[in-house]
């Protein structure tokens, strides 16, 4: 989001441009399917008294205006190009999603059905559960940064341009990577467990971790050049950290809920401390020894920068959430204890 400039050309000329000389089918498909979830989720959220045709029309019109706004703004960014083909693909994706949402969306999102039933069955009630789901989704999203240590988060050093406080040494780096990966694995596992309602939610905790690993696998396969799907697993520290963290998580899931809550916060702090103290790894520098580097596509560069920022902030947001949740639970426990004491006094 830097380098804004005025090109001196009419802002809306791109709407009437001919078919582009260089056409990327992959980008065209991404632009279609990128807007499908928007139509799928917004249509069921519109007033139920509206007809399906009205919902689809309003949704597609809104999505087209959103895409039009984004494409127009790209006229002023040096790394982006406004495209009427992208606008058409976005509108087509919104239309496809709106049709799906109008046909099956209400059954999927309505109370007592589909996703809503799963939400009520497994996740904590109210805003606390909603906020936790958002944080978990963001955590999966930030795994799409294939040149970072697996599960890395809280790294403020690059944002603040601070040199690593510890000098590089291969053995020392392995120790740091092992401890950081194990701490973060334990933190996200216990974070997810703290907001799960069902006692049988342990399987969902490991499913979430597997989803994060899958996201890293896909990112390494698609966004590294040349493709390197298992680049994230090449470090001994990552391998040891997965083994150690997985074993510790299995044991921690048997602890009382209060202990899990406290341990999750402690692991978030530990992981954030380690990622900022560990020496710079030469293995994550682009092109070292002929290794892979991040794709030069401008659209991914912007997305990648956003993911890096979210990865740096996520542990602190999760820690703030756990602190707020702990205070809320503590107040309610205190209220319940006071009520019990008052009832006992009245009985006596």
**Count of alpha and pi helical runs:** 12
Beta-strand residue fraction = under 5%
- The count of domains is 2
Distance between the termini: 68 Å
Description:
- The protein is mainly α.
- The chain has two domains: 14-117, no CATH class; 125-337, no CATH class.
- The protein is built from twelve helices and two strands.
- It has helices at residues 25-33, 36-45, 52-73, 84-109, 114-122, 126-141, 157-160, 170-195, 202-223, 236-252, 257-277, 298-347; strands spanning 224-225, 293-294.
- Strands 1-2 form a two-stranded antiparallel sheet.
- α1 (25-33) runs parallel beside α4, α2 crosses α4 (84-109) and α8 (170-195) runs parallel beside α10.
- It is globular.
- The chain starts with 24 loop residues before the first helix and ends with a helix.
- Residues 331-348 have low confidence and may be disordered.
Short description:
The protein contains twelve helices and two strands. It has 348 residues and is an all-alpha fold.
Topology:
Layout: H1 25-33, H2 36-45, H3 52-73, H4 84-109, H5 114-122, H6 126-141, H7 157-160, H8 170-195, H9 202-223, E1 224-225, H10 236-252, H11 257-277, E2 293-294, H12 298-347
Antiparallel strand pairs: 1-2
